[in-house]
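Researcher: Next entry: Thiamine-binding protein (Nocardia acididurans).
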Amino acid sequence: MLLRAEFTTEPFHGEGDPPPHATETLALLENSGLTCEFGPLGTMVEGPEAVLLPALQQVLDIALHHGASRVTLQVERVDE
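Model: Predicted structure:
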């Protein structure tokens, strides 16, 4: 099954470099070989269920341990 997830980590930072809770989660996903789109208000990632779901569990862990106060996550099936 192919899935697409979009998540936002908070707190938001205005200008300047993105915070570690955003950049570290992106690095994890890219190192997992997943296709990502990193934007100012969130990250979109797409991949097979077997790879994406375990990676999302790690995203939550990494974000919270790198200063995120909230992670908002949406997951949808895209292979139908």
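Model: Note for the record: Strands lie at 2-10, 35-39, 42-48, 70-77.
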